[in-house]
Design a protein that fits this description.
α4 packs across α10. The chain has 561 residues and is an alpha/beta fold. It has 21 helices and 19 strands. Among the domains are: 220 residues, 3-Layer(bba) Sandwich (FAD/NAD(P)-binding domain), CATH 3.50.50.60; 108 residues, no CATH class; 31 residues. The strands form four sheets. Strands 1, 2, 9, 10, 11, 12 and 18 form a seven-stranded mixed sheet that branches. β6 and β7 form a beta hairpin. The N and C termini lie far apart (55 Å).
Length: 561
């Protein structure tokens, strides 16, 4: 019972996607998760009956024929997924200084909207958006290159990608866009990879921006809805997902040639398998679970030089007011105190948690407007995120016993800073708070098991994406493989694709072989801002949720009396 074909450590979307592909191919797979729910950053949880999701705030490319849609169709889970389309007139709302600029879905709508707001930038704006599309098209072409002819023609087919590969986002956008506010609007999605324009690869930004060109979508059930579909598929194929099963050690055999043969759990139990896949980041995988004695000097040196992405504070907030009266809708809000994203990111490193100053920047997401099914008719839920340097919580080094009075005091000060900014867009919101909880870098490390509380795995500099510091799916240890945000890509869709790539390597096939077109699979998409698109099952679920909430309120008031 303790022998498997593949053991997967961690149940983030990368690990779950790999499990689906391997189990569907006939393998006996077990996914081991240390948390009490699966999903990694994509999991959902509840606080007093209100659902929150720390990591999934929107997904792109879900229309028929687009990459995320083909991913979920190919995994065979599309029929189990429903999404709400965020406000197509502004799926991103940019609040920068005293300026407000919306980013509508569709490249043509984005151009028209921004050209109207910035008429002097029309020419450069058109060229820049066209370049972004061209570069991304060539990024998507990369995995399709096959045979000698394709590689001989690569310098022509990939000419834009090759030309702009060495450049930072700041370098390229400065050639086309002169208005600093417009630059910040076009760069606002740097928050989705956590790097300022001066450090971010232009190529990475092209992929990120193009992913959302046609708008953003939010899964019914939050990230947990996506994870549920994935875990159900794994079970359907006869494999397992086990929560509260922390892996403490990857078992290695051999002297000259090291080989992974199994894992040891926190309770001492050992499981064995032909293949081991780690969905954890490289530091957790190699240094903590494998151990330096089994690593080459070259890998240890690489681990020492690896930089991890920025960390975060996340405010989970429930309020009892109709937030639409403040202009809040299903679109995301990126709130920056000043213009110049590079300076904003620099300010993040020097935040004083105990001061009364506001955070330099915040991301605001109202999940009850993104997913109307979750709305009980009275309470709205928010996830408010700000990036933060992990060093600000480094004094709380004990991963398990860090809940000191000083730590709680830091959290209280941080909450006050969040509310000070939120009051600007929702005046009086402090008077309507039902509950409020804060996630810190320590929370990230405790629940997600991520080095230094990182949000996106390894830092997404060019050197660590495709350069010598990048981590591949295969490792120097035989039969030990990697997947997740520190490999191929990050985000819900990117991490899932990393799992498919890992599975393809194990099965000795191409990713396309594992994501074959299935015409019977279709994602259901509705408009969060247009209730006329909602089917009866959505309306019935909303009605049931509101009725249950009324019953709870009535029972509570009766008991109180």
């Amino acid at each position: 019972m303790n022998v498997y074909d593949t053991i997967i450590i961690g149940s983030g979307p990368g690990g779950l996607a790999a499990a689906i592909c391997l189990a569907r191919a006939g393998q006996k797979v077990i996914v081991l998760e240390r948390h009490y729910v699966p999903g990694g950053w994509c999991h959902s949880f509840t606080l007093n009956g209100q659902r929150f999701c720390p990591g999934v705030h929107y997904i792109g490319c879900l229309e028929k024929g687009e990459s995320s849609a083909k991913l979920y169709e190919g995994l065979g889970i599309a029929n189990d997924l429903s999404f709400f389309r965020l406000n197509k007139n502004g799926y991103e709302h940019c609040h920068i200084g005293n300026e407000k600029v919306d980013m509508p879905a569709r490249p043509e709508n984005l151009y028209e909207s921004l050209a109207k707001r910035f008429p002097n930038e029309k020419k450069g704006l058109k060229k820049y958006l066209s370049l972004v599309k061209k570069v991304n098209a060539q990024i998507e072409l990369l995995p399709k290159l096959k045979g000698v002819k394709d590689y001989l023609l690569a310098p022509y087919k990939l000419r834009y990608l090759i030309k702009y590969l060495p450049f930072s986002l700041k370098t390229v956008i400065s050639r086309y866009i002169k208005d600093p506010l417009l630059r910040d609007v076009l760069n606002i999605q740097c928050g989705d990879h956590g790097l300022p324009p001066a450090k971010a690869s232009f190529i990475l930004q092209c992929a990120m921006m193009s992913h959302y060109f046609n708008g953003g979508y939010y899964p019914v059930g939050g990230g947990g809805g996506l994870i549920k579909a994935m875990t159900n598929a794994i079970k359907k194929y006869g494999s397992e997902v086990k929560v509260e099963h922390p892996v403490t050690r990857i078992l290695i055999e051999g002297n000259k040639i090291k080989k992974a043969v199994g894992v040891e759990l926190a309770n001492g139990q050992r499981l064995h398998a032909k293949y081991i896949i780690s969905n954890a980041d490289p530091e957790k995988t190699f240094r903590e679970m494998v151990g330096e004695p089994y690593l080459s000097k070259k890998l240890i040196s690489k681990l020492n030089k690896t930089e991890y992405s920025i960390s975060s504070l996340i405010l989970f907030l429930t309020v009892d007011i109709d937030v639409r009266k403040f202009g809040i809708d299903s679109g995301n809000i990126w709130m920056n105190q000043k213009i110049d994203l590079d300076k904003q990111y620099e300010a993040i490193k020097n935040v004083d948690l105990l001061s009364d100053d506001e955070f330099p920047a915040m991301f605001i997401s109202c999940s009850t407007l993104k997913d109307p099914v979750s709305y009980n008719g009275r309470y709205h839920n928010f996830e408010v995120v700000t990036f933060i340097d992990n060093k600000l919580f480094s004094e709380f080094s004990d991963t398990i016993n860090y809940q000191s009075e000083k730590y709680k005091d830091h959290k209280q000060h941080a909450c006050r800073k969040f509310l000070k900014s939120l009051e600007k867009i929702m005046p009086g919101i402090r008077n309507h708070i039902i509950q409020m909880e804060l996630g810190t870098p320590k929370t990230n490390d405790f629940y997600i098991n991520c080095t230094k509380g990182n949000v996106y795995g390894t830092q997404k500099t060019l050197n660590q994406i495709i350069g010598p510091m990048a981590y591949q799916q295969t490792t120097e240890i035989e039969n030990l493989h990697l997947c997740g945000a520190s490999t191929l890509s990050h985000g819900a869709a990117g991490a899932s694709l990393s799992g498919v790539k890992t599975a393809a390597g194990i099965l000795n096939c191409n990713m396309e072989d594992l994501l074959k077109e299935d015409l019977s699979q279709n994602i259901r998409i509705y408009d969060a801002e247009d209730s006329s698109t909602w089917p009866d099952w959505v309306l019935n679920k909303m009605k049931d949720k509101k009725n249950r909430f009324k019953e709870v309120v009535h029972e509570s008031s009766t008991n109180g009396a």
